[in-house]
Amino acid sequence: MTATPPVPRAEILARAEAAYLGLALGDALGATVEFMTPREIAHHFADAGGVHREITGGGWLRLKPGQVTDDTGMALALGAAVLAHDGEITRLACARAFDAWMRSKPVDIGNTVRRNLVLFRRTGYPTAPPSEHDAGNGAAMRVLPVALATLAWSEHEVRDACRIQAHVTHNNVVSDAACEFIALAVQDFIRGASLREVYRLRMQPLVEAQPAFAFRDKPRRENPSGWVVETLQAVLQGLVNVGGFENCLVDVVNRGGDADTTGAIAGMLAGAMYGRAALPARWLKALDPATHEACVRQARQLVG
Asked: Torsions phi, psi of 227, nearest 5?
């Protein structure tokens, strides 16, 4: 990456806030259309031009307007654990935090997360066994607190920290690649890198190492499943091809499928890239106030 001028601390904090709020906004926006197809979304929102672009709640979970799902919930649980351990990221602390979150009866929880947290309860061992079947997006959707807490760490240390939190539930090399990419790309954007720089420094190497993630010159990834490859393809197509925070998130969630998670990941990346001022005021107003406050507080505390 070409050298960029030092970013003022106030801007770093603002971009960290934007990433965390972007995660929550994308989650809340996408949850309304989760598991719908693009055609179903267009029909359902025909009165709005066939496009879902407001935070209204509802969906299969029957959420209140501005309510978030497991994407934001697990991230906040992880962030709280990191802060409680003075910025240290350990397997046992992460596992205990996720287990406590599951015991709180969240509105939604992924099958792989549930299965491996039940295993942790039974064995006390905080790392799930390696599995080629655990390449879901459940570890990638919650990785943001690690990205913020390790902003001053070396790339090798960041990658290790990503795997520590991921392997509690998703011990899989494809999931690892997605988590590490997201965390490092968020950090690059927070430090002031451009989309072009992050494309060269992060996106191209990701696809070279894991060709399944290829997203350029590919058909539009619609109705993405919970497989992290499809998740990231949809996110990166939106991030690269659509300008602006709001337009990017609207594009991504209107692809349907696992829309709360694609929205959450797109939100954290686009938030870090476009900054605090790009977040739509009406979306922020619609977001659950307690969630809004928790995201801002954790973002500032994690960056330190």
From this structure: -65, 130
Chain centroid to CA 101: 17
- The predicted model gives 183-209 an average pLDDT of 97
- pLDDT (tens digit per residue) in 134-146: 999 999 999 999 9
pLDDT at 2: 47
Asked whether residue 146 is assigned to any structural domain, the reply reads: yes
pLDDT > 50? residue 1: no
Is residue 116 a part of any domain in this protein?
A: yes
* Cα–Cα distance, 147 to 180 (Å, whole number): 9
pTM for the whole structure = 0.97
Q: Could you tell me if residue 3 is inside a domain? A: no
On whether the CB atoms of residues 143 and 185 are closer than 8 A, the answer is no
CA–CA separation, 46 vs 36, rounded Å?
14
Domain boundaries, position 142: 9-303
Packed helices 9-31 and 289-303: angle between N→C axes, nearest 10 degrees: 140
Contact (CB, 8 A) for 300 and 13: yes
For the chain, the residue count is 304
- Residue 2 inside a domain? The answer is no
C-alpha radius of gyration, the chain, whole number: 17
Is the pLDDT assigned to residue 286 strictly greater than 70? yes
